[in-house]
Design a protein that fits this description.
79% of the residues lie in helices and 0% in strands. It is mainly alpha-helical.
Length: 126
């Protein structure tokens, strides 16, 4: 499992990889707008190539490997979850809907009572 401590990028090579990933992403967006005269296919190809290259460079860095490790840990934890049976899920959903209906009815009645007391009895506006 991943450690809960905050870690920063330490090596110069990692900082260079992260900077290169950001530059590649920015280059992709810039190329998309600069290549407008060449057509949509060239624009999208330049954008996608630069974004994929930036993603590859990011995932090769230490931060990218930590992100992949976090994803793998999260997937393992998701597989450990014991999901409720269909009947139990439907039953709990029905309880929630019934509770929401009762609360909505209570709030409507409270609002109507307060409105009646305030406007009809105290102010006499109706």
């Amino acid at each position: 499992m991943a450690s809960p401590e905050v870690e920063t990028v330490s090596s110069g090579a990692d900082k260079a990889k992260l900077a290169a990933a950001v530059v590649l992403a920015a280059l992709g967006f810039t190329a998309f707008f600069m290549l407008e005269a060449q057509g949509a296919m060239v624009q999208w190809a330049a954008l996608l190539v630069c974004l994929v290259a930036g993603a590859v460079v990011f995932f090769v860095s230490e931060s990218g490997r930590q992100l992949i490790g976090y994803g793998q840990d999260s997937w393992r934890e998701t597989q450990k979850v014991v999901w409720p049976a269909r009947r139990e899920a439907i039953q709990m959903t029905a309880y929630v809907f019934a509770f929401v209906f009762v609360i909505a009815l209570f709030l409507w009645l409270s609002d109507s009572l307060i409105s009646w007391v305030l406007y009809d009895l105290i102010l006499g506006w109706r």
